[in-house]
Design a protein that fits this description.
Elements (H helix, E strand, L loop, with lengths): L6 H12 L8 H17 L3 E5 L8 E5 L7 E8 L8 H4 L3 E3 L2 E3 L7 H12 L3 H6 L2 E6 L10 H9 L1 E6 L8 E6 L1 E10 L3 E2 L10 H13 L7 E9 L5 E2 L2 E10 L2 H14 L9 E10 L6 H16 L5 E5 L4 H6 L5 E3 L5 E2 L7 E3 L3 H14 L2
Parallel strand pairs: 3-6, 3-7, 7-16, 8-15
Antiparallel strand pairs: 1-2, 2-6, 4-5, 5-18, 9-13, 9-14, 10-12, 11-13, 17-18
Helix pairs in contact: 1-4, 4-11, 9-11
Bound molecules: zinc ion.
């Protein structure tokens, strides 16, 4: 039996998957994590299925206690990829120091992938018969879940609730809203000229971009941020720059705010950024916001009630970073995030997981399952 019944079981399984390099582009590594998790869940008595999401990403893994169900009480989501390069696990393998664990992905979010198993292990067979649980482990969250979001959303649509098992920085602080993101490339074209001999013939794309930066930044407000993260333009100091390029990051709390921003953004492009300047833009990516709907309140109350039973004070926080909760939110299935372990410094070498609270988080999930019966 590969159930998790204590912290040592949890740690030995966590060690096994943390020590497999699984940066998103390392498709073999991610698939190896999927196969390892599959063996754990299968041995613990659950139905498992490897999911092929195309050649550019590793395999996904689907787990359930209720094969062939038309609907689920809850969908849990965990990702198996990390942001780290190949060789990272060899360089700094899993280790425990005092009450903390370290290693690539130890908190983001290989811990969450196993806290689910610990929580399921706490249910008795009778309870497992009365609740329908689906779990999606995806291979590409760190690059935006581009190949896995449709698969996850299909199952989310059949689920009453969805919980994302990313970590928490503080016990009880669940994420109920996440900003959406849009990336936009702006290309301005002017006219090149010698800066000394005939500057009057030139139309500087860089000067136009300076104007563009001011005008587009002015569209930001308390809910919408605009960041010109990349600027490239010109070739040499003594030539008027013909081209200038910018990539911007725009973030918003709701799709309404996104639509309002884009309406104003498009309008800005109707007025030239400089004389004879041609302006174009491409929208590269829009991650929808993770929004709260009416039914989210019901889920929040359920979580708060379960947490209270365990003497955990619940708060619901907003975050500027995205997770799989963002695209799930578009299915209108109520979704909350933060059901993994407590820790910090994700995406850095000092990433850590607090070992004192892992079982508490497993208990919380277990009690939530019981509340659905
Ligand atoms: Zn994560």
């Amino acid at each position: 039996m590969s159930k998790i019944t204590n912290l040592n079981d949890f740690l030995s399984k966590l060690e096994a998957i943390v020590n497999i390099d699984s940066g998103t582009v390392n498709t073999q590594g991610v698939t190896k994590v999927a196969l390892t998790l599959q063996s754990f869940y299968k041995e613990a008595g659950f139905y498992t299925e490897i999911v092929d999401l195309g050649p550019s990403v590793g395999n996904g893994l689907f787990v359930t206690n209720c094969k062939d169900a038309d609907s689920y009480d809850v969908l849990l989501v965990g990702h198996m990829d990390t942001v780290f390069k190949e060789g990272e696990a060899l360089k700094r393998p899993f280790k425990v120091v005092g009450n903390k664990a370290f290693g690539p992905g130890v908190f983001d979010m290989k811990d969450g992938d196993l806290i689910i198993l610990w929580a399921l292990s706490k249910l008795d067979p009778e309870q497992l018969k009365k609740v329908k649980i689906a779990i999606c482990f995806n291979p590409d969250e760190e690059t935006g879940s581009t190949k896995s979001s449709a698969w996850i959303d299909d199952i989310a649509k059949k689920s009453r609730y969805a919980l994302i098992c990313e970590g928490q920085s503080e016990l009880g602080a669940f994420t109920s809203q996440r900003k959406g993101i849009s990336h936009i490339d702006i290309k301005l074209k002017g006219r090149g000229a010698h800066a000394g001999a005939c500057p009057e013939k030139g139309r500087s794309a860089i000067n136009a971009m300076a104007n563009c930066i001011q005008r587009i930044n002015a569209l930001a407000n308390e809910n919408v941020t605009v960041n010109f993260g990349v600027i490239q333009g010109g070739l040499i100091a003594n030539a008027i720059a013909e081209d200038c390029f910018a990539r911007i990051d725009v973030r918003f709390w709701t799709s309404k705010q996104c639509d309002e921003f884009f309406a104003k953004f498009k309008k800005e492009f109707e007025t030239p950024f400089g004389q004879d300047i041609k302006a174009n833009y491409d929208v590269l990516l829009i991650n929808p916001a993770m929004e709260e709907f009416e039914k989210t309140e019901e889920l929040k109350q359920k979580i708060a009630a379960v947490a209270k039973k365990l003497s955990i004070k619940t708060t619901f926080v907003r975050s500027g970073a995205v997770s799989d909760g963002n695209h799930i939110s578009q299915t209108k299935t109520p979704v909350l995030d933060g059901f993994g372990g407590i820790g910090g410094d994700a995406h850095t070498e000092s990433e850590w997981l607090d070992l004192d609270t892992v079982e508490t988080k497993a208990n919380l999930l277990k009690e939530f399952f019981v509340s659905l019966i």
